[in-house]
Amino acid sequence: MHLSKRSLQIQPSATMKTSAQAKQMIADGIDVINLGIGEPDFETPQYIEDAAINAIKAGKASFYTPAAGLMPLRQAVADQTNSDYGLDLSATNVAVTTGAKMALYATFQTILDPGDEVLLPDPYWVSYSEQIKLADGVPVPVATGNSFKATPAQLEEKRTAHTRALVLNSPQNPTGVIYDKDELVALKTWADEHDVIVVTDDIYGNLTYNGETFTSIAQLSDHLSDNLIIINGASKTYSMTGWRMGYVIATEATISKISAFLSHATGNPTAVSQYAFLAALKGEEGEANAVAKMHDAFEERLNTIFPLVNALPGFDMPTKPQGAFYLFPDISEALKLTGIATTAEFVSRILDEAHVALVDGNAFGVDKHLRISYATDLASLKKAVDRLSKFMDQNIQ
Ligand SMILES: Cc1ncc(COP(=O)(O)O)c(C=O)c1O
């Protein structure tokens, strides 16, 4: 069958591919520890599941909803964001989508013309570049060096007459770095001066550790500027990856176009998930706060696993991640020590020989790095580090 040029240039999601490979090995009876995927291992908190079950039982989940989501949910997202960011958003500034992934997809479809360039500070999340290409745009990686954070000078070097947008992700997948306020002010000044749209992916905003705080570039002003788009969702904060709930926040005019796009793309985000997300945002009654407990578990895992991975021969992380749930060690030395030629081969041999699934940094635009997700229980994490340690012992030349 004829396949479009567009489909032929798209690479499958590296993180999902690795995870599928690991799951297949597990299904074949091999004891693989999967640190390849960015998915919290906790079941969705009970109060959220209960709200979904109640919505189904009340017959509310049986029908189409508006394309950009139920009005009370859009309002709840606006209220939460106003309270977190000090903005003055209305429900009409919000479109609820099938995960943050669809929020990003709808955004690129709405803001990009063919040939428009989008700056992606590296390392960047795997789907940005492919989604930009699907919108006939051009992803432009921006090298950030060891800090993993872009400066105006680095962006300016890549800016052309076709530069339309910049994607910022903080706390960042895969490094866990967070831009501080001064860095954001500098980036905003640069973007405003050159009329560049900033798409800020804040999906890990609630996952910061050890007293670190997160500032969104959206907080630098008390109203939403024309050139700003906020992406967020329920997957990471509430452990709701399977429910597929995300959202995009922008000016009313942009949201109405995104909504028109969504009306043809997904029809509407799944109704039952919207009721679940609404309950998630309203929060839990009583003492036990499941969301805070999950956050604290991630923090403990980071604090346990970070020094262990840093101590592996040839694995180097000069700075401790501040948020999200990934480590992104530099393995240049490990490659030299083992004589393994490429990062891809290193990852593949670790999967085959040590039975630990990791992701090649090249999936995020940066060679000689690995992404290790610590969104799994501590015992498995420690076991995985033991296996990595043995792998290095056996392969150091
Ligand atoms: C940086 C980033 N943005 C967006 C997403 C999409 O999340 P979801 O579609 O589950 O809401 C992810 C998921 O891994 C992510 O890491």
Top keywords for this entry?
397 residues, alpha/beta, Aspartate Aminotransferase, domain 1, Aspartate Aminotransferase, domain 2, 7-stranded mixed β-sheet, 3-stranded antiparallel β-sheet, binds pyridoxal-5'-phosphate, transferase
Break the fold down into its secondary structure elements and pairings.
Elements: H1 5-8, H2 14-27, E1 33-34, H3 46-57, H4 71-85, E2 94-98, H5 99-111, E3 117-121, H6 126-134, E4 138-142, H7 152-158, E5 163-169, H8 181-193, E6 197-201, E7 228-233, E8 245-249, H9 252-265, H10 271-282, H11 290-310, E9 326-327, H12 332-338, H13 343-354, E10 356-357, E11 359-360, E12 370-373, H14 378-395
Parallel strand pairs: 1-10, 3-4, 3-5, 5-6, 6-7
Antiparallel strand pairs: 2-8, 7-8, 9-12, 11-12
Helix pairs in contact: 3-10, 4-10, 5-6, 5-9, 11-14
The structure holds pyridoxal-5'-phosphate.
Pyridoxal-5'-phosphate binds at residues 38, 99-101, 125, 169, 173, 201, 203, 233, 235, 241, 246.
